[in-house]
Amino acid sequence: MFSDCCRLLGRGSMFVFSHRQFTQLLDVDHSWKADLLLDIGAGDGAVTEVMDRHFRSVHVTEISPIMRRVLAGKGYEVLDAHKWMEKKELYDVISCLNVLDRCDCPLALLENMKNSLKIGTGRLILAMVLPVKQYVESGK
């Protein structure tokens, strides 16, 4: 798969926000700590690393087998990208960055994220490339 080759070569790593921007986005200070983060489509984990210091546990999903190994090597709990919601965990924060345009069921993904956030305090960080041009690597 072409994208796996790019990722192995260190190409395509994503910058979305700095640590300072992340804390501003959530309106928390640098010492804020929560229990559980889910980073959907974590790629090489570069963005996950910006967020992980604020969580006691970090779960990630990723389609690429190579990147799943990279993420596991960084100490993250790697969940199946199609079955993570079956775990019935409630997350403090779910990050879904540039994934909705790459999955075959974006509305189902949004519903699963909504149902997996802690009621009242859970936060979703969502980023999308606009204009949306669906490109599905795995699925229909």
Strand content: 15-25%
Structure classification: alpha/beta
Number of structural domains:
1
Largest sheet properties: 5 strands, parallel
Q: Mean of the pLDDT scores?
A: 89
Organism: Limulus polyphemus
Pfam families: DREV (PF05219)
Protein name: Methyltransferase-like protein 9
Give a structural overview:
This protein has 140 residues and is of the alpha/beta class. 29% of the residues lie in helices and 19% in strands. The chain has helices at 2-8, 19-26, 46-51, 65-73, 106-116, and strands at residues 34-40, 55-61, 77-79, 93-97, 123-127. Strand 1 (34-40), helix 3 (46-51) and strand 2 (55-61) form a beta-alpha-beta unit. The longest helix has 11 residues, at 106-116. The two termini are 17 Å apart. The mean pLDDT is 89.
Write the layout of secondary structure elements.
Blueprint: H1 2-8, H2 19-26, E1 34-40, H3 46-51, E2 55-61, H4 65-73, E3 77-79, E4 93-97, H5 106-116, E5 123-127
Parallel strand pairs: 1-2, 1-4, 2-3, 4-5
Organism: Limulus polyphemus
Protein name: Methyltransferase-like protein 9
Summarize the structure.
With 140 residues, this protein is α/β, with parallel strands linked by helices.
From the structure above, extract its key features.
140 residues, alpha/beta, Rossmann fold, 5 helices, 29% helix, Methyltransferase-like protein 9
